[in-house]
Amino acid sequence: MKPKLVVLTGAGISAESGLRTFRDSDGLWEGHDVYEVASPEGWLKNPELVLDFYNDRRQDVKAAMPNAAHTGLATLEDKYDVCIITQNVDDLHERGGSTRVLHLHGEIFKMRSVKNDRLVFDIRQDIKMGDLAADGGQLRPHIVWFGEAVPMIEAALQEVRKADIFVVIGTSLQVYPAAGLLHYAKPDVPKYIIDRNVPLVDGFGSLIRIEKPATAGVMELLAIL
After folding, report:
1. Which segments of the chain belong to CATH 3.30.1600.10?
2. Could you give the C-alpha distances from 171 to 29, 45, 87, 168, in angstroms and in order?
3. Would strands 106-113 and 120-122 be described as parallel, antiparallel, or unpaired?
4. Does 32 qualify as catalytic in the annotation?
5. Is the peptide bond before 213 cis (omega within 30 degrees of 0)?
6. How would you classify the pairing of strands 81-86 and 4-9?
7. Burial class, 212, CB count within 10 angstroms (exposed 0-12 / middle 13-18 / buried 19+)
8. I need a surface site. Which of 33, 50, 101, 102 has the fewest CB within 10 A?
9. Which residue has the higher pLDDT, 84 or 176?
10. Over 90: is that where the pLDDT of 71 sits?
11. How far is it, in rounded angstroms, from Cα 173 to Cα 180?
C-alpha cells in the first residue's frame, strides 16, 4: 500500500501557465466584477454575458499548457496514492498526467442543464443562448458560482481525513468551504503549504511553509518527498 498524499490546489498553480487568478486584489476577474459572471444573480441578470465570459475562459484553458508544478505532482504517483483536490476549473492537472483529480468548483469543459444539475455534458466549443439540454433547460457552465452548494466537498473531506501527507499549493485559503479542508487532516500528518505569499495559518505544529511560486515550490517538495 502506497502512503496517501492529498494535494489541494488553487489559482496560483495555474497562474504560471498564463491563466489569470480567479480574483485579483481589485475584486475583478478579467475585467468583470466576479458577481456579474460567477453568481446565480449575475446569470439571471445577464446570462449572455456569463456564457460569453466562460466561452472566453474555455478558449484560454485550451491554449494554456501544464507547467512543471502540474507535471511534478503527477510524478508523485510512482511513490504515493495521490489525490488532487483542485479549486481550479481547468484541466491542467489531467493534461499534466495526474489520474485522480477532484474538481471542487466545477469544470470549464463541462456544461449542465439549468433544470437539473446532474444532467452534465462535455463541451469544447461555445455555449450559446438557446442551446438546450434534453430536458429543455438552457445549458450553462458546469461551474460552482458564489452562493451555490459545493457538491464535491464531502468527497474531498473523505480524502483529506485519510491523508498521510497533505499539501496546499497556490491558494489564499480564503474561499470556503475549500479553505477549511486543512483542518480535517489528522493532527500528526505532515502538512506543506506552497505559495509565493504563504497565508497566515495558526494552530498547526507540523506545518512546513515553502514560500515560492508553485513550480519552484513543487520542485522543492519533490526533493523532500
Report:
1. 20-63+110-143
2. 16, 30, 8, 7
3. antiparallel
4. no
5. no
6. parallel
7. middle
8. 33
9. 84
10. yes
11. 8
- 70, 93, 105, 142: which one is catalytic? 105
Compute the distance between CA of residue 19 and CA of residue 65 in angstroms, rounded to an integer: 10
**pLDDT above 80 for 90:** yes
Residue 34 has pLDDT above 70, yes or no: yes
Q: What span, in angstroms and rounded, lies between the C-alpha atoms of 24 and 22?
A: 7
Other CB atoms within a 10 A radius of the CB of residue 34 amount to 17
Residue intervals of the chain classified under CATH 3.40.50.1220 are 1-19+66-105+149-225
Task: List, in order, residues 6 or more apart from 80 with CB less than 8 Å away.
Answer: 2, 3, 4, 5, 165, 225
Give CA–CA dist 210/207, Å, rounded: 10
Q: What is the mean pLDDT of residues 20-49?
A: 81
Distance (Å, whole) CA 224 – CA 185: 20
Second-level CATH architecture of 1-19+66-105+149-225? 3-Layer(aba) Sandwich (3.40)
Assign 178 to helix, strand or coil.
Answer: helix
The more confidently predicted of residues 195 and 24 is 195
Written as nine digits, the cell of 10 is 488553487
**Domain 20-63+110-143, CATH:** 3.30.1600.10
* Band of residue 21 on the pLDDT scale cut at 50, 70, 90: low
Residue bearing cell 458560482: 145
What integer is the mean pLDDT of 99-110?
Answer: 97
